Structures are given as C-alpha cells and as structure tokens.
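User: Predict the structure for this protein chain, please.
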Amino acid sequence: MNYEFIIVEPQFQTYVALIRLNRPKELNALNLQLMLELKNALVSLDENENVRCIIITGNEQAFAAGADIKQMESKSAIDLLKIDQFETWDQIRKTKKPIIAAVCGFALGGGCELAMTCDMIVAGESAKFGQPEIKIGVMPGAGGTQRLTRAIGKALAMEMVLTGKFISAYEALKSGLINRVVPDDVYLDEALKLANEISQMSPVSVRLAKESVLRAFESGLQEGLYFERKNFYMCFASEDQKEGMKAFVEKRKPDFKGK
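Assistant: Here is the predicted structure, written as structure tokens:
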C-alpha cells in the first residue's frame, strides 16, 4: 500500500515491522491523513502473520511535535465531532501486537500521546516529552490527561498539563513514562533489540499477556485478576504452550509458531 505521510517496512527485520512518520518539514505534525494512514498500516500489520512486533518512529529531530494546528485552527466543536478524529487513535489501542515507540527529539502534544498509546517507549537522550496544548488555549484530547497521569502520577502530570512544561528523556525515565534512554545514534537499534526479544516469544502468549497488562489500567484489581486468569488458561489451548514447556524440559530453545 502506498502512503504519503508514513513509510512502512513490513519486514524491517525478521518478525519486526517499522512505521516511520514522514512529515519532516512539519516535524511530523499529526494531521488527519497521517493518522488515517497509520491506522490502516496497523490494521494491515496486525493481520500479517510474519509480523510479531511493530516499531513506530520519527526522525532525529522529532518523533512528532504535536497535532497539525493549521488543520485544526478554524474548526468548530461540531466540526471536530463530525470528523471524529480520535476514532483513528482507537485503532492504535486495539492493535493486538506489541508496539514500541522509538523516540528521538520532540514528542509533544499529540506526539507524546501517540508515544504513550504504544506499549513501550525507547528514547534517545535528546528526547523531550510534553503536553503544551494549554499554551494555545486548549488541552490534551487524545489521552494525554489520562495516560500521562497513570504513568507518572498526579502531581507531575498536573504540572505538565497546566504549564506546558517539557521533561527530558532522563526525567521521563525516572518518572516511569518510558522504558530506557540510550544515545541518539542507537535509539532505533535499541528499539529493534527490544522488538526482536519480544518477537522470539510465543505470539499467542504475547497477545494474551499484552491484553492482560492493558486491562490493569482499565479495571479494578478483582476484574483484572479474573481477566488475567482467563488468559492464562487460554495459553494452554495453544501449540506454543506445548512447545515452550517441552523445550524447557529438553533444555533447548523453543520454536514458536503462533498457533
């Protein structure tokens, strides 16, 4: 499939697909078309049996420096309601395969929200995270107030949202927003290393485990435990479970098929 604002490498490496946001002159500002292309790419990759993990990245200057303000400036509340631009964001959350955000440079506004919608974040040392919407008279609208607060706590999230403050990659790591910080010249390699590690696991159990972790953010403890238990039992319906345990007993590396 041909895209204008993203570049997709379905076989970036064995079992790993790469999606690169590609509006460099606009610092990868997220317009409606880019988000629609991202949605369609994720649907396609989620159905591709040769893909087990997905990386979303930008470039050295910016992961994404926010939403496309020029596209939104003249819109009314009813216009935005009809466009339903956040429907495309829901597909990111619904993607069954793990998604890693590889961030270098700015991840601001919608860019920060996009990174947080992914399952893990690997950042270069130059990365900056922030929700500066308050500075232009609005507020986060794609999960910024919710995911940020769950990740870093009320106090810091409130300060970032109400002042537009940016935090560095190391501050983001300390606060629990991201997985790791590495030098800028290896941030994508580090994301690939993590993706490769995940892609060697059973695709069935990875999918069920991802669902269970996400459920922890959307339910109470008892409901979450019930959901986890159900998915644990489901693993025993897979060929991968039989192969994994047999390989452990035989002291060899398992050969997972995703069945």
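The radius of gyration is 19 Å.
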